[in-house]
## 1
Amino acid sequence: MEATPPLWPVSIKGVVLVADKVVLLKNERAEWELPGGRLERGEDPETCLTREIAEELSLEIEVGPLLDCWRYPVLAGKEVLIITFGCVPLARGAPEVSHEHSAVGLFEPNEIAPLPMPEAYKRAIALWLAAIAAGLEPAPRRV
């Protein structure tokens, strides 16, 4: 007997820095999270992330490299596949919070560790900060 593969929603998230600070949003569970959202049918991850960040933060971004991918148990019996990318804002400007979240925050890298948020988001942030510190150009992915 073959096992049925799981069907999970996919959420595309981005690590965005504004003025060298990490942009995070506070969700309905009072946790901080990366901006982004659900991949829609027929949509590629880069298009999804560009759309979601424009909706949630009123920022235009260029999607950079894939950082991480992981399974997140949001609630008992409900899991989401999270895919994170590094992102580069295309213009200067402060992010604006949408109706989807209760707050937007700009955090120094040393302020991230104690925040209530999934550890894998912290890992993605650390990966993007390390890539930038190493002088790696955030090369956008092209499909």
## 2
Amino acid sequence: MSNPSARFEPPHCPRRDCPFHGSSVGWRWIRHGSFRRRASPQRVPRFRCGHCRHTFSEQTFSNTYWLKRPDVLQPTAYRLLTCSGYRQIAREARCSPTTVGRHAARLGRLALLQLAALRSGAPVLEPVAIDGFESFGLSQFFPLHLNLVVGAVSHYVYGFTHSPLRRKGRMTEAQKRRRAALEAEHGRPDPRALERDMADALRLAVPLPQALVVRSDEHADYPRALRRLAGYDVSHERTSSREARTAGNPLFPVNRLDLLLRHNSANHKRETIAFSKRHQSVVERAAWLILWQNVAKPFSERHGGGTPAMRAGLLQRPLPVPELLRWRRFPDRVRLPAVWEGYYRGEVRTPSIARERRHQLTLAY
């Protein structure tokens, strides 16, 4: 049997400071021996860039690059889609829950790059349904919205953003005092965050001004969000949230995504102890689930019908999870939207956590 590594040819220089990192036109490289390791494949070929003279290996282009437990990444990817918590995954993989959390963060960053690479800036040729998925991170005193933009025909998720919210609803006097104390210490969430971030989500979905049909419920912030879209010819169709959430509901595509997020993610279950401890983790896990449902999950579990990406004309076939995890994507070679750049670097803030971890690696960035 032939060795797949022997046929590998590096597509570009992996060093961010090399002129041939962004383009391989005219790039030269030479083979530079190999090294052995315990994980499979045990022999990994090395190469040297003909311009910057830095060396690298085939593993540099793998999604398991710089991981001490490369065997944990793919099982974590599957378990996160089947409503497992970090501790359950860690128990099976015989590792620390912190290790699983870092693998989940890597999957989220990969998903952001994959989603950005799929969208070429082409116009959206279908109506879109928008909604906010409400959850919380660290404490119910720190709720949040995931602002979702979903194709009404394809069910493709074109964009999403994160908004911190103020706790609302019925509270005891003690809870009101606790909320006031937290807001005095960390500040009150921006009351216009949902309006602003939903407009950002729509710009992610439709980066260039065009005629667009937007379907939403009767939330008061959505008309204001649409008015922020200068140059867009928007037709806004509103449906009461009290309408039955059946397949005939105009908001069914985004309601279905809400169900998937609640059904497949342990951190969004009702009355769970597996809730996310950081808002950044909510964004990363949501990005991974959205990528999976966009490119790997059939439109219908019973009848097939292709993936949402196929129905939107972005792919010709499904991309299973092992294929999604085969090769590493480099952020300097994918044009991330400004909002998602902050998500990639781990800049989503969680109140009450003083020193949150950021993604600041150099070679494994």
## 3
Amino acid sequence: MLVTRDVDICCRFSEANLLRIQNAFADLHPVHRSRPDLPLQLTSEQCASLKNLYLRTDLGVVDCLGAVLGVGDYDEVLKNSIEVELPCGLCWIISIETLIRAKEAMNRDHDRITVKHLKEIIKQRN
């Protein structure tokens, strides 16, 4: 099994939505991952120019993405997602087939390994 140490969230990058994300993470003391000395305090100008938002919080790393390589923007990601029940409530996650497309598009060494594992999972399901 391969384990990542972050959570990736695909979301609309509107100012209102980014400010909701900022408020949702406020109690977890979010900072910019590349600049941990900068707390997350978004401005209108930043919201207008951001494509992705990489954060470190008290609970770990969160990557907020405006699009997923190999899949598309938020609307395309949502179309290729399934609803699952988690202990915290309902959540939309990309399907395993969509995850394979994304990993193949990224084409890093660990992504190629992940694709092999994911294809094996599909094979075992069938």
